[in-house]
């Protein structure tokens, strides 16, 4: 698995519009939510951003942004974005598998530990067969900032573990 942690951004809306849109070259196929923070997942991930008019990226963005807006001193760039890709020879994973993988990544970097209902809000967006995008805010639901120190190394460690557990192609990274 290859993990790419993108530069932080200021608003989830722009990123979500891109992820649920056609992509730069029309490559986004069937964009959908496959995972979300614990409290949101209780009601069903697919119902998260539904309004009377149907699915709304704006509504989803507002839900993600609520703890940031309520925080006393949130980070200037409170949106964390990580994409996780499988190797071309790996079998296609299901939406449920990608949702579970996204939850493990958010736990590994300290955003949303499994037993913590007050963790940071996050969603997993899938729009292809070989990867998922994790979009999270860096403010917990209680208003505290989450510091994702060593997130790259934590993600890489988890990716190697998932490769072994799921029987995926095992990537060997060179130390620099």
Structural description of this entry:
- There is one protein chain.
- The chain has helices at 12-20, 38-42, 57-70, 95-108, 151-166, and strands at 2-5, 32-36, 50-51, 54-55, 79-85, 120-126, 131-140.
- 32% of the residues are buried.
- Helices cover 33% and strands 21% of the residues.
- The protein has 5 helices and 7 strands; from the N terminus they run βαβαββαβαββα.
- A hairpin with a 4-residue loop joins strand 6 and strand 7 (131-140).
- The longest helix is centred in the last third of the chain and has 16 residues, at 151-166.
- The chain is α+β, with helices and mostly antiparallel strands and 176 residues long.
- The strands form 2 sheets. A 5-stranded antiparallel β-sheet has the order 1-5-7-6-2, with helices on both faces. Strands 3-4 form a two-stranded antiparallel sheet.
In short, what is this structure?
The protein contains five helices and seven strands. The protein has helices at residues 12-20, 38-42, 57-70, 95-108, 151-166, and strands spanning 2-5, 32-36, 50-51, 54-55, 79-85, 120-126, 131-140.
